[in-house]
Specification:
The protein is mainly β. It has two helices and twelve strands. The protein has one domain.
């Protein structure tokens, strides 16, 4: 784990890693645990963990954070809303391209700008005692970017054996 980048070279390194997701289409959105979002982005691939299922080459997930979905700057739904409303409204993300992924380096939150003026803002919750990430991104070549908890981040192989 590394703390919030203090040098432009660290920030530039992470932002360079994220360039590949720009222009990719989000084709799947679902809730994983409670109000945690999971976005499937880019080419579809077989999911080795779920027979007959597919996953995106890029997979973005929220964890110990709050999120807000906006269209044209107006809030449509957020993680504190009713589950039925959340399940209905998150489908608006599907079929849209990722235009920008902007990290707030003061707290590791992120804004995902999609086509059709859709924005997904992932807000960090620093008073949370959870050891879970604020958000995470599974990337090509089995790489994994984890932002949080609090001011920490890591970039490593997703298939690395934990000891």
């Amino acid at each position: 784990m590394t703390t919030i980048p203090k040098q432009n070279s660290e920030i530039a390194r992470i932002e360079k890693l994220l360039e590949g997701i720009i222009g990719e289409t989000c084709w799947g959105v679902r809730l994983s645990f409670g109000d945690e979002l999971r976005l499937e982005v880019g080419p579809k691939m077989p999911n080795p963990n779920l027979k007959g299922q597919q996953k995106g080459l890029w997979r973005l997930g929220t964890r110990a954070s709050r999120w807000i979905l906006e269209i044209s700057g107006d809030s449509v739904v957020d993680s504190n809303d009713d589950m039925l409303l959340i399940k209905e409204k998150i489908k608006l993300i599907e079929g849209n391209q990722i235009m920008a992924l902007i990290i707030d380096w003061t707290d590791l939150g992120v804004e995902i700008q999609l086509s059709n003026q859709i924005n997904l803002k992932i807000l960090t919750v620093w008073n949370n005692t959870s050891k879970l990430a604020h958000w995470e991104l599974f990337m090509p070549d089995s790489m994994f970017l984890k932002m949080g908890p609090k001011g920490t981040w890591s970039y490593d192989r997703s298939d690395k054996v934990l000891t």
